[in-house]
Design a protein that fits this description.
The structure is a homodimer. By secondary structure, the first copy, chain A, is an alpha/beta fold. The first copy, chain A, contains 13 helices and twelve strands. In chain A, the strands form two sheets. Chain A has a six-stranded parallel β-sheet with strand order 2-1-3-4-5-11, covered by helices on one side. In chain A, helix 9 links the parallel strand 6 and strand 7. Chain A binds a DNA duplex through helix 2 and helix 4.
DNA sequence: ACGAGTCATGAAATGCATTTCAAGGGCAAG
DNA sequence: CTTGCCCTTGAAATGCATTTCATGACTCGT
């Protein structure tokens, strides 16, 4: 910058003002400086800039790719979320640092903020990382979470109404006269657990029972294998609630091996409403989440926290899309 | 850092050495300094650090979320790629800055490097941004591209053998005695165009013809609508090559409306081999790409470029997975 | 025509860590 | 017992831009 200043016959502060769009410079000087800067391919060193200013204008989005490792990514759901967040950050001219989770260590996140790497965090899918988040909130690190919304937690979470999603599925099963339900999903994940709670709620006062099959991981293949193994050793249920549409497809395949079909032999409800769910044969009944606005909400809440305010958790509505299964 | 130095009764350089893991400090001093630093929640200011050092240890991954905007994300393919890149970068302890494309402006990318924001770029899906990339290469900015590999281009690209993918589909059509093929996809995208070329290659010396349907965008819904509209005004082909598995599903749905089914009435080949393709009814024949190693290759090539070396483009094999369609 | 007030610009201080270079302490060899 | 070397540590310079605060030029009102 000193060089540019010398060449343009002005001082460093003036160059700085020009480059940061300050209104305190004459149009003539501005044009001249800009031209010199451009001619020399000069760009403000962002590290020096961030060093001087206090803000980093960068948000870390924490996403566990590891859970998809190896196998194919089954469900595009989490990426739709990521896309929404990316867009919302771009609108606010904030940089997006995509990071893998720092193993269970709240101090690591705090350090990131102290080190002026990022201003805050957006956790996409809290998984089983719960207790760490509580500690992180205590440290005063700004962050928001996509996942299960639990009013007793001290941090701001945004998520779908998983309990409602579960209840909608249960009520659908009741309407079709199903009594022996199978819940497929890892109830260690808070979101999944809440869907199970919702499903239970629907049974109150009704004669329907719920069994649970906890699958190895969230992939298509695991779900297929686990479901097939389950059917080989247990009586078949007359209704299945799967944790994702991709899982629902695996369920259909596993049941088909036993000669069982939806909706004749069992009702089936998936989750997320991914496009192939509608195209599938049979078309899969599913619970839809409002992903498209989630990104903007997450970013807005996070900015409130970064600016020192409070941000309340938000529950987004879900709705059942009834199709053939 | 000066504070920590004072409190620990050492000098700034010593603290710096401890925190950067230099072997030039006694174990005793190291432990003491570390303890003081931890006790005070001190973290090295990364902006000051990067200002002094020349490297940023950050890579920008450029991905156009806009092309997925609004609608649901049809195909998880590009995200599997992203996941692979994210993992490869994490292994090398590099930060991943996820950025939207800077509109057609090669200078904007060069500035990012000059401003010490990132060391280089990974473009995921070159789309139609071709000429800009050529200019960017001329500027000497380090970057690699996932997409069509064209040896005449001056930059390093990594991509599947799209031409082979197309030819495999064509040969499959020939084997099943199909003569009237429909290619569905936007041939403005270099990758898609090469698949079309491959398909053409397969017709040489054979009596088969290729029609092209260019869809509005890459979404499930557009493909469904465009295909339906096409079938309403054109005779039905006896073979279809779609640009993705999700598109193939849309094709099946559109043909079904006309009472046409695969494989009885037409052969169908998709692309990417996403998990639901196998589960679909009918199970979709598709071309598989080697996504899982792509991330590591892209990162490796980019690092070579950043270190001033040359990096040759790489073509990854593809294979046809024959299923019911 | 003179004091008051604008406006554009510059000098110097500041934000923080790394790195050369020099110096001090300790130890082995002569 | 001394000389020379290695090892650990510190002083000072360096990387770069922003922001007060001060200064000079110039305009406007009376």
């Amino acid at each position: 910058m000193a060089d540019i200043a010398r060449i343009a016959n002005v001082s460093k502060p003036t160059v700085s003002r020009v480059l940061s769009g300050s209104p305190l410079v004459t149009q003539a000087t501005r044009d001249h400086v800009l031209e010199v800067a451009r001619a020399h391919g000069y760009a403000v060193n962002r590290n020096a800039q961030k060093l001087r200013q206090t803000r980093t204008d960068t948000i870390s989005v924490v996403l566990d790719f590891g859970s998809h490792r190896g196998g194919r990514i089954a469900d595009p759901f989490i990426f739709e979320l990521l896309a929404g967040v990316a867009e919302a950050l771009a609108v606010r001219k904030l940089d997006l640092l995509l990071s893998p989770p720092a193993a269970q260590d709240e101090r690591a996140y705090q350090d990131q903020v102290n080190a002026r790497v990022v201003d805050g965090f957006i956790f996409l899918g809290q998984g089983e990382r719960d207790p760490m988040l509580r500690d992180l909130a205590k440290l005063g690190v700004p962050f928001v979470v996509w996942g299960a919304v639990d009013p007793t937690e001290p941090y701001c979470a945004v998520g779908s109404d998983n309990r409602l999603g579960g209840r909608l599925a249960g009520e659908y099963f009741l309407r079709s006269g199903r009594k022996d339900w199978l819940f497929i999903g890892d109830t260690n994940h808070a979101e999944i657990a809440m869907r199970h709670d919702g499903l239970s709620e629907a049974t109150h006062g009704k004669s329907a029972s719920i069994r649970v099959l906890r699958t190895g991981d969230m992939s298509y293949t695991s779900t297929l294998n686990d479901t097939a193994a389950y059917l080989a050793t247990h009586p078949a249920p007359d209704a299945v609630f799967a944790f994702s549409d991709t899982a629902a497809m695996a369920v259909i395949a596993a049941f088909k091996e036993q000669g069982l079909r939806a909706p004749e032999d069992f009702a089936l409800v998936g989750y997320n409403n991914i496009p192939p769910a509608a195209a599938f044969t049979p078309a899969i009944t599913t619970v839809e989440q409002e992903t498209h606005i989630a990104g903007a909400i997450l970013v807005e809440k996070l900015m409130q926290k970064i600016e020192g305010g409070r941000a309340a958790s938000t529950v987004l509505p879900t709705r059942l899309i009834v199709r053939e299964t």
